[in-house]
Amino acid sequence: INSNVLPFYPASKIMLITVGNEILKSNDPNLVNQLLPAMQNVQKALEAVSLGGKIKVSTVNSMTVLGSSDPPSSGSFAAGYQTGLKGILQFLSDTGSPFAINPYPFFAYQSDPRPETLAFCLFEPNAGRVDSKTGIKYTNMFDAQVDAVHSALKSMGFEKVEIVVAETGWASRGDANEVGASVDNAKAYNGNLIAHLRSMVGTPLMPGKPVDTYIFALYDENL
User: Fold this and answer.
1) Among 9, 11, 100, 208, who pairs with 60 as Cys (CB 3.0-4.6 Å)?
2) 153 to each of 85, 99, 117, 197, how far by Cα in Å?
3) Is 172 exposed, middle or buried (0-12, 13-18, 19+ CB in 10 A)?
4) CA distances from 103 to 3, 6, 33 (A)
């Protein structure tokens, strides 16, 4: 906090510190067991310099924390993660911090490379997909993934915890077996995502308020 926050705040609008990235996915018990205490330590350090509440503390999760996501209303956390998540979610609830998630429709298309799935993932015109439980029609994968996370939070009693999309994006290039990785698709996804967020329509289960969303990445990696 003294080295990386105080010298730059508030000139740099630091809103959230994420402790670890996709730690639960690692299945490393040493890391997993240290995650919540580490978050609590960062929170205490912020409070010690009167920044508690001004800067939130969270951790970033991959979509693999969900055991069920289709339909979105049936979203739930995987059984193996629920015990570890309970304490983290209680911390987020107590501190008013968001649940940070990395939804990638790109990967959903990888596992179902049909033209109609590509349109659904890129926010382009498509027939939509109806949630069999609620009757709600989804017209894009991003909303479906975010609402599945909302349903999972609700199933654990934490529906008031806000969701932040810490990463989303689309590959502009990839290996031969990575279907859909192209500049045109990346441009379509990012542009249509921004337009969707700016419309302020939100998601079907969280209407009228778009989730804070960060696009990955500013530059290309060679992976």
Assistant:
1) 100
2) 10, 9, 26, 21
3) middle
4) 31, 31, 24
The answer to whether 178 and 110 are in contact (CB under 8 A) is yes
Backbone angles phi, psi at 67, to 5 degrees: -90, -30
**C-alpha to C-alpha distance for 59 and 38, rounded to whole angstroms:** 10
As a whole number of angstroms, the distance between CA 187 and CA 55 comes to 32
Number of Cβ within 10 Å of residue 199's Cβ equals: 9
What pLDDT, in 10s, does the model give residues 58-99?
Answer: 999 999 999 999 999 999 999 988 888 999 999 999 999 999
- For residue range 175-193, list pLDDT tens digits in order: 888 889 999 999 999 999 9
Distance CA 173, CA 195 (A): 23
pTM of the model: 0.94
How long is the chain?
A: 223
Instruction: Please identify every residue annotated as catalytic.
Output: 22, 167
